């Protein structure tokens, strides 16, 4: 009995190792681009509302990390989707006395007190991603991000130019204000009908079937707008399975979406450059601390909307696969 | 009300055919399926078409496959809150081992199975050894696996998803087994529907026709009494948790192969739908009573509702409300018919 185990214990790992081959390893582990050490040595805290597994916020975090490396700053990144907990994280960051604080404000009133406490403690604050309207009133140096309504309008305009009359807007997180704003923006400029449908980001297979069902039930739909890259991937399958001619456009980007744009399966993507939002926030605070510079003179710095189309998709695809676009 | 009147012992009393039918755990779910189908089919011609059927069967099958072992586990008296997250763990494991570490696809498929069975074993072992409620043990596993899924995926890939499995040698063969489609009436039905029917039949057979099935009922009904008469309740419980993990492996890999990518956060929250499907299908939360076929019918109700609401063009903001109300109605109806049937039996 013991011998059998011994044999198994030696043979099985050997089999496993011999089954390895570079033909299978189609994904290469990402190599972080090395950067110069700036040597500023500031301590910068970033507190966002992104949930842990969110693709978008992972890219923001990658930008923050790289900027920290390039500037030679020590950066920390914390996040919680719950506004109360995010406020507590901001307080915790303030107590650690950083040289600068970056906050995304999905729910500004809930964060107001915490942000003002940080400012009272003499910590410069930059808001990013969301909360542009309140940024100045709360005493932040500047805001970096994309106006969701403006981005939505850009999509609506583009779709109108493509001759779209009836678009469906796929919302993957119920109750997210930014997503509703995007759909609203699309509606503003499209001029036709925009129908919202709700799907579950954690159950993408069902999301695909629901989009397919919508296309089959209402054949007047000639465009699908998705609000996240992961949903765009399943929407692409839904359109082809429903034999629909609907055009597909999406907000946000990942490697697969860039590839699909290249192949013409997705018409275009609106990229708000999350990497830039994270990277720039750290750089701006570093410049402010070292040289009192404020980019944009305190006006919001827009990182989007930029359109990724067939022309520029190939170059972006490679970067997206590495988690920086 | 006195016990003086002589009565036939209830265990040998004659039970009429109608009453026997009412006592079937899956009856409520079957009625639900018929009502929901008629309701949506009357309003939408797409819903009753072949293509429409393919859609709602597709959504139902992913839920239904998991509802089969979850129902067995509930009949055995336990929950598994980690069931949803385990589907992601299984897919991510296959994906990372293959597309990042270069392990052959089938080999990583098998290693992923071993990993999942280990997770199921740990769940079952902890529940039987500590005697703590499975709710707590699997809540820990649920949270732990969420962190593990995210942590490992980000560490290895620098993103939160694993993709490109379709570029790996051997993908197409696996795709044929797990994710091909069968064309009926011009509509493409995913093969997962056939797997679902097969596993439902298998699960029902195990539950009703084998010794292990008897042990499941006994363990869930009264663990102490069953232990005293020689039922291996510990083994039964561990076996049931491992069956859930096995199915999580099957479903997770099927979805990964089908969509060629899997997200680290996928599956979170789905465990509650599995449990809801089992409950609509007549499983008691206290264990000892229920049906595998009922659970699959419960999954069918969910699938038809989710797709039906889109078919008839309702505002999908209200979907969850509809589902919640339906769940309550189904459970109340189950409770009512069962009590009625049991009362009239005495």
Overview of this protein structure:
The complex is a heterodimer of chains A (325) and B (346). With 325 residues, chain A is α/β, with parallel strands linked by helices. Chain A has helices spanning 2-18, 55-71, 83-95, 108-120, 132-135, 148-161, 177-190, 204-217, 229-241, 255-262, 274-291, 313-321; strands spanning 43-48, 74-79, 100-104, 125-129, 142-145, 166-171, 193-198, 223-226, 247-251, 268-271, 301-302, 306-308. A 6-stranded parallel sheet of chain A has the order 2-1-3-4-5-11, with helices on both faces. In chain A, helix 5 links the parallel strand 4 and strand 5 (142-145). Chain B is mainly alpha-helical and 346 residues long. In chain B, helix 1 (17-23) crosses helix 14. The interface between A and B is large, with 55 and 62 residues.
Task: Describe how the helices and strands are arranged.
The complex is a heterodimer of chains A (325) and B (346).
Chain A lengths: L1 H17 L24 E6 L6 H17 L2 E6 L3 H13 L4 E5 L3 H13 L4 E5 L2 H4 L6 E4 L2 H14 L4 E6 L5 H14 L2 E6 L5 H14 L5 E4 L2 H13 L5 E5 L3 H8 L5 E4 L2 H18 L9 E2 L3 E3 L4 H9 L4
Parallel strand pairs in A: 1-2, 1-3, 3-4, 4-5, 5-11, 6-7, 6-8, 8-9, 9-10
Antiparallel strand pairs in A: 10-12
Helix pairs in contact in A: 2-11, 3-4, 6-7, 8-9, 10-12
Chain B lengths: L16 H7 L3 H17 L6 H26 L7 H17 L5 H26 L3 H24 L3 E2 L8 H9 L1 E4 L2 E4 L1 H18 L1 H11 L1 H6 L4 H27 L2 E2 L6 H11 L11 H20 L7 H27 L1
Antiparallel strand pairs in B: 1-4, 2-3
Helix pairs in contact in B: 1-14, 2-13, 2-14, 3-8, 3-9, 3-11, 3-12, 3-13, 4-5, 4-6, 4-11, 5-6, 5-11, 7-11, 8-9, 9-11, 12-13
Beta-strand percentage range of chain B: under 5%
Give the total of beta strands of chain B: 4
Strand order of the largest sheet of chain B: 1-4
Largest sheet of chain B: 2 strands, antiparallel
User: How many β-strands of chain A, per DSSP?
Assistant: 12
Q: Output the number of helix runs of chain B.
A: 14
Multimeric state of these chains? heterodimer
So what's the overall shape of chain A? Answer: globular
Structural class of chain A: alpha/beta
Low-confidence stretches of chain A: none
The percent range for helix content of chain A is: 40-55%
Helix content of chain B: over 70%
Coarse shape of chain B: globular
Tell me the strand percentage band of chain A. Answer: 15-25%
Q: Give Rg of chain B in angstroms.
A: 21 Å
Instruction: Count interface residues per chain for the largest interface.
Output: A-B, 55 and 62 residues
How far do the termini of chain A sit from each other? 55 Å
Average predicted confidence as pLDDT of chain B: 89
> How far apart, in Å, are the first and last alpha carbons of chain B?
12 Å
